[in-house]
Protein backbone atom coordinates (compact mmCIF):
# COMPACT_ATOMS: atom_id res chain seq x y z
CA UNK A 1 0.00 0.00 0.00
CA UNK A 2 1.47 3.34 -1.09
CA UNK A 3 -0.37 6.54 -0.24
CA UNK A 4 -0.04 9.78 -2.17
CA UNK A 5 2.61 12.10 -0.69
CA UNK A 6 0.77 15.28 0.24
CA UNK A 7 1.91 18.49 1.93
CA UNK A 8 -0.19 20.41 4.43
CA UNK A 9 -0.53 23.51 6.60
CA UNK A 10 -2.72 23.79 9.72
CA UNK A 11 -4.10 27.26 10.48
CA UNK A 12 -6.13 28.69 13.34
CA UNK A 13 -6.51 27.94 17.02
CA UNK A 14 -9.96 26.91 18.29
CA UNK A 15 -11.50 26.30 14.85
CA UNK A 16 -8.60 24.93 12.85
CA UNK A 17 -8.33 24.42 9.09
CA UNK A 18 -5.96 22.04 7.34
CA UNK A 19 -4.90 23.11 3.85
CA UNK A 20 -3.65 20.26 1.64
CA UNK A 21 -1.24 21.08 -1.19
CA UNK A 22 -1.62 18.64 -4.09
CA UNK A 23 0.83 18.07 -6.90
CA UNK A 24 -0.63 17.15 -10.32
CA UNK A 25 -2.64 13.89 -10.16
CA UNK A 26 -2.43 13.69 -6.35
CA UNK A 27 -5.65 12.99 -4.44
CA UNK A 28 -6.91 13.52 -0.91
CA UNK A 29 -10.02 11.76 0.42
CA UNK A 30 -12.36 13.38 2.95
CA UNK A 31 -15.65 12.99 4.74
CA UNK A 32 -18.61 14.43 2.86
CA UNK A 33 -19.10 18.13 3.64
CA UNK A 34 -15.66 18.71 5.18
CA UNK A 35 -14.27 20.88 2.38
CA UNK A 36 -14.17 24.66 2.93
CA UNK A 37 -12.53 26.01 -0.22
CA UNK A 38 -10.22 24.90 -3.02
CA UNK A 39 -8.26 26.24 -5.97
CA UNK A 40 -9.66 26.04 -9.48
CA UNK A 41 -8.06 23.04 -11.14
CA UNK A 42 -9.05 20.56 -8.43
CA UNK A 43 -11.82 18.17 -9.42
CA UNK A 44 -13.91 16.33 -6.84
CA UNK A 45 -16.09 13.26 -6.99
CA UNK A 46 -18.20 11.40 -4.44
CA UNK A 47 -17.31 7.72 -4.46
CA UNK A 48 -18.25 4.61 -2.54
CA UNK A 49 -15.11 3.73 -0.62
CA UNK A 50 -11.72 5.27 0.02
CA UNK A 51 -10.06 4.17 -3.22
CA UNK A 52 -7.27 2.31 -1.41
CA UNK A 53 -8.11 -0.91 -3.28
CA UNK A 54 -9.66 -0.10 -6.67
CA UNK A 55 -9.77 -3.79 -7.71
CA UNK A 56 -12.12 -4.97 -4.94
CA UNK A 57 -15.16 -4.95 -7.26
CA UNK A 58 -18.77 -3.99 -6.67
CA UNK A 59 -19.30 -6.46 -3.80
CA UNK A 60 -16.34 -5.05 -1.93
CA UNK A 61 -17.60 -1.50 -2.43
CA UNK A 62 -21.07 -2.45 -1.15
CA UNK A 63 -19.44 -4.03 1.90
CA UNK A 64 -17.59 -0.77 2.56
CA UNK A 65 -20.89 1.11 2.27
CA UNK A 66 -22.48 -1.19 4.86
CA UNK A 67 -19.60 -0.64 7.26
CA UNK A 68 -19.79 3.15 6.94
CA UNK A 69 -23.55 3.02 7.49
CA UNK A 70 -22.87 1.32 10.86
CA UNK A 71 -20.74 4.28 11.96
CA UNK A 72 -23.46 6.79 11.07
CA UNK A 73 -21.23 8.47 8.46
CA UNK A 74 -22.16 9.23 4.87
CA UNK A 75 -21.91 6.18 2.62
CA UNK A 76 -19.84 8.28 0.19
CA UNK A 77 -16.39 9.78 0.53
CA UNK A 78 -15.25 12.74 -1.58
CA UNK A 79 -12.06 12.42 -3.64
CA UNK A 80 -10.28 15.69 -4.47
CA UNK A 81 -7.74 15.40 -7.31
CA UNK A 82 -5.41 18.00 -8.80
CA UNK A 83 -6.13 17.75 -12.53
CA UNK A 84 -4.11 20.85 -13.42
CA UNK A 85 -0.41 21.30 -14.22
CA UNK A 86 0.72 23.16 -11.09
CA UNK A 87 0.40 22.72 -7.33
CA UNK A 88 -3.13 23.33 -6.04
CA UNK A 89 -4.66 23.63 -2.57
CA UNK A 90 -7.85 22.36 -0.93
CA UNK A 91 -8.84 23.14 2.68
CA UNK A 92 -10.89 21.21 5.24
CA UNK A 93 -12.25 22.04 8.69
CA UNK A 94 -13.90 20.22 11.58
CA UNK A 95 -17.63 20.89 12.21
CA UNK A 96 -17.15 22.03 15.82
CA UNK A 97 -14.44 23.80 17.93
CA UNK A 98 -11.28 21.80 18.51
CA UNK A 99 -7.98 20.76 17.01
CA UNK A 100 -6.82 18.90 13.90
CA UNK A 101 -4.27 16.16 14.51
CA UNK A 102 -1.88 15.16 11.69
CA UNK A 103 -0.94 11.47 11.84
CA UNK A 104 1.87 9.97 9.75
CA UNK A 105 0.72 6.35 9.63
CA UNK A 106 4.16 5.14 8.53
CA UNK A 107 5.57 6.30 11.89
CA UNK A 108 3.07 4.40 14.08
CA UNK A 109 3.10 0.97 12.49
CA UNK A 110 0.69 1.78 9.66
CA UNK A 111 -2.52 1.74 11.71
CA UNK A 112 -4.53 3.78 14.19
CA UNK A 113 -7.93 3.22 15.80
CA UNK A 114 -10.06 6.31 16.38
CA UNK A 115 -13.54 7.40 17.40
CA UNK A 116 -16.06 6.85 14.62
CA UNK A 117 -16.49 10.59 13.95
CA UNK A 118 -12.84 11.64 14.36
CA UNK A 119 -11.64 11.07 10.77
CA UNK A 120 -11.42 14.26 8.68
CA UNK A 121 -9.29 13.54 5.59
CA UNK A 122 -6.29 11.55 4.39
CA UNK A 123 -3.99 10.97 1.45
CA UNK A 124 -5.40 8.61 -1.16
CA UNK A 125 -4.22 5.09 -0.44
CA UNK A 126 -5.35 5.24 3.19
CA UNK A 127 -7.83 2.49 4.03
CA UNK A 128 -10.76 3.76 6.13
CA UNK A 129 -12.71 0.89 7.72
CA UNK A 130 -14.37 0.02 11.03
CA UNK A 131 -13.21 -2.08 13.97
CA UNK A 132 -15.53 -3.57 16.57
CA UNK A 133 -14.18 -3.78 20.09
CA UNK A 134 -13.02 -7.27 20.95
CA UNK A 135 -14.56 -7.52 24.40
CA UNK A 136 -18.30 -7.88 24.98
CA UNK A 137 -18.27 -5.41 27.87
CA UNK A 138 -16.65 -2.73 25.74
CA UNK A 139 -19.25 -3.34 23.06
CA UNK A 140 -22.26 -2.90 25.34
CA UNK A 141 -21.00 -0.14 27.62
CA UNK A 142 -18.37 1.70 25.61
CA UNK A 143 -20.65 4.49 24.45
CA UNK A 144 -18.83 6.38 21.70
CA UNK A 145 -16.16 3.68 21.74
CA UNK A 146 -18.38 0.78 20.67
CA UNK A 147 -17.51 1.07 16.98
CA UNK A 148 -14.08 2.44 16.17
CA UNK A 149 -12.69 3.54 12.82
CA UNK A 150 -9.49 1.88 11.62
CA UNK A 151 -7.11 3.87 9.43
CA UNK A 152 -4.41 1.88 7.63
CA UNK A 153 -1.70 3.05 5.28
CA UNK A 154 1.71 4.65 5.01
CA UNK A 155 0.78 8.30 4.43
CA UNK A 156 -0.81 11.24 6.20
CA UNK A 157 -4.21 11.15 7.86
CA UNK A 158 -5.95 13.91 9.80
CA UNK A 159 -8.21 13.53 12.82
CA UNK A 160 -10.27 16.23 14.52
CA UNK A 161 -11.03 16.45 18.23
CA UNK A 162 -12.98 18.77 20.54
CA UNK A 163 -11.33 21.27 22.87
CA UNK A 164 -7.70 20.72 23.80
CA UNK A 165 -5.83 17.65 22.53
CA UNK A 166 -3.32 15.81 24.71
CA UNK A 167 -0.93 13.20 23.33
CA UNK A 168 0.15 10.59 25.90
CA UNK A 169 2.87 7.99 25.49
CA UNK A 170 2.23 4.88 27.60
CA UNK A 171 5.05 2.49 28.48
CA UNK A 172 3.43 -0.71 29.71
CA UNK A 173 0.95 1.47 31.61
CA UNK A 174 -2.81 1.73 32.01
CA UNK A 175 -5.01 4.82 31.75
CA UNK A 176 -8.65 5.33 32.82
CA UNK A 177 -10.56 7.66 30.48
CA UNK A 178 -14.10 8.93 30.02
CA UNK A 179 -15.33 6.97 26.99
CA UNK A 180 -15.96 10.10 24.94
CA UNK A 181 -12.52 11.62 25.59
CA UNK A 182 -10.56 9.11 23.51
CA UNK A 183 -9.70 10.42 20.05
CA UNK A 184 -7.50 7.56 18.87
CA UNK A 185 -4.73 5.14 19.80
CA UNK A 186 -2.25 2.93 17.99
CA UNK A 187 -2.40 -0.84 17.78
CA UNK A 188 0.12 -1.30 20.60
CA UNK A 189 -2.64 -0.48 23.12
CA UNK A 190 -5.59 -2.61 24.25
CA UNK A 191 -9.02 -1.04 24.76
CA UNK A 192 -11.57 -2.17 27.35
CA UNK A 193 -14.32 -0.93 29.69
CA UNK A 194 -14.54 -1.16 33.47
CA UNK A 195 -17.03 -0.09 36.14
CA UNK A 196 -16.62 3.46 37.49
CA UNK A 197 -16.02 2.85 41.19
CA UNK A 198 -18.69 1.78 43.69
CA UNK A 199 -22.46 2.09 43.19
CA UNK A 200 -22.67 5.54 44.78
CA UNK A 201 -19.91 6.87 42.51
CA UNK A 202 -21.52 5.26 39.47
CA UNK A 203 -24.92 6.86 39.96
CA UNK A 204 -24.06 10.18 41.65
CA UNK A 205 -20.46 10.90 40.67
CA UNK A 206 -21.34 12.45 37.32
CA UNK A 207 -18.64 10.47 35.50
CA UNK A 208 -20.96 7.88 33.95
CA UNK A 209 -21.39 4.21 34.80
CA UNK A 210 -18.29 2.99 33.00
CA UNK A 211 -14.81 4.21 32.11
CA UNK A 212 -12.64 3.22 29.18
CA UNK A 213 -9.19 1.75 29.76
CA UNK A 214 -6.22 1.70 27.43
CA UNK A 215 -3.18 -0.26 28.47
CA UNK A 216 0.12 -1.38 27.02
CA UNK A 217 2.85 0.51 25.18
CA UNK A 218 1.91 3.08 22.56
CA UNK A 219 0.37 6.47 21.85
CA UNK A 220 -3.12 7.66 22.77
CA UNK A 221 -4.71 10.99 21.82
CA UNK A 222 -7.24 12.53 24.24
CA UNK A 223 -9.73 15.39 23.86
CA UNK A 224 -11.05 17.71 26.56
CA UNK A 225 -14.44 18.42 24.94
CA UNK A 226 -16.14 15.46 23.21
CA UNK A 227 -18.91 16.54 20.88
CA UNK A 228 -21.44 14.51 22.88
CA UNK A 229 -20.59 16.54 26.01
CA UNK A 230 -20.83 19.81 24.09
CA UNK A 231 -24.21 18.80 22.64
CA UNK A 232 -25.55 17.86 26.09
CA UNK A 233 -24.65 21.29 27.46
CA UNK A 234 -26.27 23.07 24.50
CA UNK A 235 -29.46 21.03 24.89
CA UNK A 236 -29.60 21.75 28.65
CA UNK A 237 -29.54 25.52 28.07
CA UNK A 238 -31.60 25.66 24.88
CA UNK A 239 -35.09 27.21 25.07
CA UNK A 240 -37.77 24.67 25.87
CA UNK A 241 -40.47 23.70 23.41
CA UNK A 242 -43.49 26.02 23.59
CA UNK A 243 -41.50 29.24 23.95
CA UNK A 244 -40.66 29.11 27.68
CA UNK A 245 -37.01 29.69 28.58
CA UNK A 246 -35.26 30.07 31.91
CA UNK A 247 -32.11 31.40 30.30
CA UNK A 248 -28.97 32.10 32.26
CA UNK A 249 -30.44 34.92 34.40
CA UNK A 250 -28.02 37.53 33.05
CA UNK A 251 -28.94 40.97 31.77
CA UNK A 252 -27.41 40.09 28.41
CA UNK A 253 -29.62 37.04 28.21
CA UNK A 254 -32.69 39.22 28.87
CA UNK A 255 -31.66 41.72 26.21
CA UNK A 256 -31.12 38.90 23.75
CA UNK A 257 -34.62 37.55 24.37
CA UNK A 258 -36.11 41.04 23.91
CA UNK A 259 -34.31 41.42 20.58
CA UNK A 260 -35.59 38.01 19.50
CA UNK A 261 -39.12 39.08 20.39
CA UNK A 262 -39.51 36.74 23.41
Characterise the protein shown here:
This protein is an alpha+beta fold and 262 residues long. It has a single domain, classed as Double-stranded beta-helix (4-Layer Sandwich). It contains five helices and 17 strands. It has helices spanning 57-71, 136-141, 199-204, 227-237, 251-260; strands spanning 7-11, 17-22, 27-31, 35-38, 42-47, 77-82, 88-93, 98-104, 111-115, 119-123, 127-132, 147-152, 156-162, 165-177, 182-186, 189-195, 210-223. The strands form three sheets. Strands 9, 11, 12, 14, 15, 16 and 17 form a seven-stranded antiparallel β-sheet that branches. A hairpin with a 5-residue loop joins strand 1 (7-11) and strand 2. The longest helix has 15 residues, at 57-71. It is globular. It starts with 6 loop residues before the first strand and ends with a helix. Mean pLDDT is 79; it is low at 136-145, 245-252 and 254-261.
Question: What are the salient characteristics of this protein?
Answer:
262 residues; Double-stranded beta-helix; 7-stranded antiparallel β-sheet; 6-stranded antiparallel β-sheet
Amino acid sequence: MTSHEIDYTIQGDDMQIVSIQLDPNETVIAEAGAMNWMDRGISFEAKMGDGSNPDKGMFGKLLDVGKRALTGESIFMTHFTNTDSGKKEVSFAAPYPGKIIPIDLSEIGGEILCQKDAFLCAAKGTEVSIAFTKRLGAGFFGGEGFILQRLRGDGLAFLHAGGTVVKKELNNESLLIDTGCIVGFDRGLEYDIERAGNLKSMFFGGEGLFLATVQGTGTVYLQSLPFSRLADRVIQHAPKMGGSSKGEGSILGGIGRLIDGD
